[in-house]
Specification:
Layout lengths: L1 H17 L7 E7 L9 E7 L6 E9 L2 E7 L2 E5 L2 E9 L9 E5 L9 E5 L2 E5 L5 E6 L11 E3 L4 E8 L5 E8 L10 E2 L4 E3 L6 E5 L7 E7 L4 E6 L4 E2 L6 E9 L2 E10 L2
Antiparallel strand pairs: 1-2, 2-5, 3-4, 3-6, 6-7, 8-9, 9-11, 10-12, 12-13, 14-21, 15-16, 16-19, 17-18, 17-20, 20-21
Amino acid sequence: MNRITISFVAFAVLYIHCFAAPKPIVSVGIISHQTSCITPNGEAEASVGGSTVGFEFRWYVATSSGDSLIDVGSRVDSLSAGPYKVIAEDLQTSETSDPIILEIHNATISPEVTLSFEDNIIRADSEEGNSYKWFLEDGSELPDTTSHITVSESGTYLVQVTSQLGCTAVRLISVVVENILGYNSTGREGLFLFPNPATKYFQISGGKWMNDVHVAVYDLRGKRILDLSRPESVDISHLLPGQYLVKLMNGRQVEFVQRLRIAE
């Protein structure tokens, strides 16, 4: 009698060992990587043999210091960029799968921006459709909103570039500016600018060679806003009140540079 019982137990152990449920084999599909820099929205979905019925899926953030459970379910969203782990459990047999590691990548990092400086112009090379704000080193915002600015003073300039998704990048560049006017306030003897201050126009008088010159007006950031050939007078009624620089050229020779104040 004892011998029969022992044989039955041995058969039962052998049966259980041979027919134990296999581990679930999990497949994971990444629905989307992160596509916004404002809120994380990477998504992933897991299944066993294409099915999610009868299984529980546990999602973890995988770190070097350990794993942290973040969600339970076949699908998870709002994932920031980084490594994750998913494990499936068969609810009937309690068998668990080997962990599957996946990586969510940040597909829209801050805009790529390259700064260059030539001919006293700082250019920000970035993707089309981005917007720009320029600042001085002290944080003062400049009025320029294009991808380039003309500068008249040496120093450090910053640009904030914002993509259409709202991602921003800040870059800075230090530049040494050669005086774009070639002179400090100076001029050939006998030349003078009047009236100064001016409201509607100004003139430069003196010298019989006046018919061979042209006059350029710059704002104090070095941007040329007027360039006229042989003017008898220069109309400035459309310019905003403030400080400007006037340069008179005789061919390639700078003959006269003077600061002009336009009054209200």
